[in-house]
Amino acid sequence: MSDLRGNIAIVGTAESDLGTVAPDMSPIDLVAQGIVRALDDCGLELKDVDGLFAAMSQSRMVALSTAEYLGIQPSYFDSTQIGGSSFMAHITHAQAAVAAGLCEVVVVAYGSTQRSVSRAAASAREPNPWEDPYKPMQPPSSYALAASRHMHQYGTKREQLAEVAVAAREWAKLNPKAFRQEDMTVKDVLDAPIISYPFTVRDCCLVTDGGGAIVITTPERAKDLKQKPVYVLGTGEAITHAMISQMPDLTVTGAAISGPLAFGKAGVGPADIDVLALYDAFTVNTMLFLEDLGFCKKGEGGHFVSGGRIAPGGELAVNTSGGGLSYCHPGMYGLLVLIEAARQIQGVCGERQQDGVELALAHGNGGVLSSQCTVILGSAATL
Amino acid sequence: MSDAAEKSPLTTFREHCENGELAYQVTADGTPVYYPRLAAPGTGETGLAWKVSAGLGTVHATTTVCPRGGEPYDVSLIDLDEGFRMMSRVEGIDPMEVAIGMRVKMRMIPGADDTPPYPVFDRAEDA
Fold first, then answer.
1. Which of A133, A147, A198 sits opposite B118 (nearest CB)?
2. Are both A370 and A252 inside the same structural domain?
3. Whose CA, among A5, A67, B8, B126, lies 20 to 30 Å from A151?
4. Does residue A216 sit in the same domain as residue A157?
5. Domains recognised in chain B with CATH numbers
6. With an 8 Å Cβ cutoff, are A146 and B61 in contact?
7. pLDDT in tens, A91-122
8. Residue numbers in B near A144 (CB within 8 A)
9. Could you tell me if the ipTM is greater than 0.85?
């Protein structure tokens, strides 16, 4: 186990406005809204914040924009940008920064208006002479290529991918903030327009606006705040490639590295985890991460997710918010993955709340399966 | 003497493309490197040697892109026989018929005014 086990706690969480936000809202408006709401959630104030962590695609120097907007001068800041898993990386970096005495009250924040301004405008593509001539639809085509390998090597079926989307939709029906709540069957997923085979539009995450913030502090300061502290027990980070053609093995993600690191530091294993929040940018992600994090064997993900096993009432609670597939996906969704995992431990998830959640796993994905970061969270009882 | 690079890896690659050649690099011990770089991944070895691929390979992964209002097309990852992998497109057959394991042969798409030449692949029946 790590010396940093439990050295910080998530004490406040908040979503910014989600879905389609008011006209001309900026991503920094959403960041500020998230931070103010998250501070209010725990009872800390802006003047307490001395650590600022943020990443986004719509502001190149987001720490500057955010500090200026809120009129704060944090002594420590970190804008590590590795895509949607950035915020899981921020958690690891916050552990180190707090341990080093560099800051004590940290906010981790995100905002995006990608639905309002279009994905192309929100996330400018970098020229890539090795891929651009072939016009992959990015990011879906990269994930579709990985899915094609999984189907080829392990016999995974499109119906099994669709099960992931249906399970997410069933969870979303229990979340009042979910963007999509209408009934959806496996057949509906399969019959939807193809985006990049084997994916239809329903195998792909939503394109929404949104964001939010998490407030983190020391266990000492966490004691006197409004919410039940959620302790960071272990984390792992991995980067394996940037372009999909360079991924070492299309069926094995960096979660096979980050997961064991996080479990090792936390001193727990997959069987101990009560709730999983996995970054489901595409249906294949959930399968790959269940395999790579050790919840089933490599290649058995398709079978594992079938028959409603990860849906409400199933054996394993996965993506209880409805996930990026049905709840909200504002581009870099990892922050909202962390928020759902923390809230399940706090016991504040309403209709979708699971009983007796002591340990939750939040897993972030960035790029095209490129960066993988795992965070294991626990209640006070797990310390 | 300056240690500045005289030519970018991309420029050399494209010069080969102009000659109809799919070029890649090898390290001193013969390990293939693609995409071309100034330094080998893992070791940082510089001065990588250039080679020309025979252009024969196997489809490693494949997807059919269906753009809204446009014709579907293939995007595949191709494993060249020399041991490197690249993104490309298999042409000449229904994109949904492109299958993992299919043997393919490189063909160079000539450059136009605003686009440099680039390699694509055709199905190779007996290769």
1. A133
2. yes
3. B126
4. no
5. 9-123 (2.40.50.840)
6. yes
7. 999 999 999 999 999 999 999 999 999 988 99
8. 63
9. yes
In this structure, are residues A330 and A210 in contact, taking their beta carbons and an 8 Å threshold? Answer: yes
In a domain, A128, yes or no: no
**Which of residues A196, A231, A266 is at a domain's end?**
A231
Cβ contact A196–B85 (<8 Å): no
pLDDT tens by residue, B3-31: 899 999 999 999 999 999 999 999 999 99
Decide if A55 contacts A81 (C-beta within 8 A).
yes
- Across the beta sheet with B32-33, the strand order is B32-33, B23-26, B49-52
- Domain count for chain A, please give it: 2
pTM of the model: 0.97
pLDDT tens, position by position, A216-266: 999 999 999 999 999 999 999 999 999 999 999 999 999 999 999 999 999
Structure tokens at A1: 């186990």
Rounded to a whole number of angstroms, the distance from the CA of A225 to the nearest CA of chain B is 48
Question: How distant is the Cα of A307 from the closest Cα of chain B, in angstroms?
Answer: 27
pLDDT at position A215 = 98
Q: Helices A140-154 and A283-292: crossing angle, nearest 10°?
A: 60
Domain with A361 in it: what CATH number?
3.40.47.10
